[in-house]
Amino acid sequence: MSTDGGTFEFAQLALASALLKAVQAIGYTKMTPVQAQSLPPMLEGRDVIAQARTGSGKTAAFGLGLLSRIEVGLNQVQALVLCPTRELADQVANAIRRLASTTPNLKLLTLTGGRSVGPQLASLAHVPQIVVGTPGRLQDHLRKSTLDLGAIRVLVLDEADRMLDMGFEPAIRGIVSHTPGSRQTLLFSATFPPEIRAVSGWLQRDPLTVTVNEAPVSVRQRFFEIELAQKNDLLKRLLGRYQPSSVLVFCNTRRDADSVADHLVRSGHSALALHGDLEQRDRDEVLLRFAGGSCRVLVATDVAARGLDIPALPLVISYEVSPDADVHVHRVGRTGRAGAEGVALHLCSPRESARLKSIEPRVPGGIEWEKASLVEGTANSALQAPMRTLCIDRGRSDKMRRGDILGALTGDAGLSSSDVGRIDIMATRSYVAVERSKANAALSRLREHGIKGKKPRVRPIQ
Prior knowledge:
alpha/beta; Rossmann fold; Alpha-Beta Plaits; 3 domains; 7-stranded parallel sheet; 6-stranded parallel sheet; 17 helices; 35% helix; globular; disordered N terminus; RNA-helicase_DEAD-box_CS; ATP-dependent RNA helicase DbpA; EC 3.6.4.13
């Protein structure tokens, strides 16, 4: 089943009243195409394999689907969502919690690596109905017999193509072997390579296929033919022309992502690289800085950029043309979300031009070329970040709350609430974005006065 439009009201669905109330409270009214096509069969209990770009509403689709199958009074794990990374698992868990906000006595637990096992074991003593996790940590719990998946009703693989790219198929097979054959299996992916079809073959039973793979019409795409050696100069001129509040630059390799980010930093831009070679903590901090406004340009590989929780990007740039048309559509889908206007720019060297043959049919209105020589933008007009992120060595395990940090900054530190941006509370540390000109003063006052009578270590993230 393929669609690029035709949304319907959520009220038309056979959803429990509590779920409809949550949907209304969040502000959802009309379903997105992937929701309209996948939710009715999911509510009927069918297996579904769905392809749709980032920002298309996939999480709400399978979230509502699995919540509809949960029996709250039954203290067994009834739904399992597999995610490739810890940050995506956290985002999915938060989205499902919002959808379940009006459903009393429902427990959801996130099981991912990079965190102490002890608190997870304590949480598992009170069995959750829903588990969201990463393959490695779920395998750990299954080996220790601390997790029972024998009552699973719904299994979801989110960003399935990325999990296969990361080599998780053996882990997925092992986890699935602990679930009953009668389960409903939902497979969501941004792209449909042959490997996804193969996995669906042994994982699902007569699945309905939903494909929503067109780039959003609110995005204007422009292509620039440019020699490889001139790409860095053109990139800087484009940044100078558009002056975006934030921009995602895609590269095909980790080495190129590092090289482009380094070149931009040397030119005075606030830029960071994101790719699979980063340690988890470094990756977390790059994402937090970009989402919090203390980095303007994120240079990323396609795999690393999957699942980013970035609600609005005015501009994306492909430093290199992707050899995969589905990946091209996924890149474009990072901008122009939720009805907003977006721009996607693509830098194409002569040797990359052959890749456009498969991409052109996926570009609404066809490929629009613009002469690189006519781009008016000051290459030296560097993008500076408006915020600076501070790291506090206290987190959820220390009972740290967002209100504690905000209170300390607007109290002893003397900032106004408008000077304080995004606050993220992790297990053992917290991050807060502060208006750049006030960051040093905030740092000094936090170190001097502390938070709620305690003086945790506070440092700026460089």
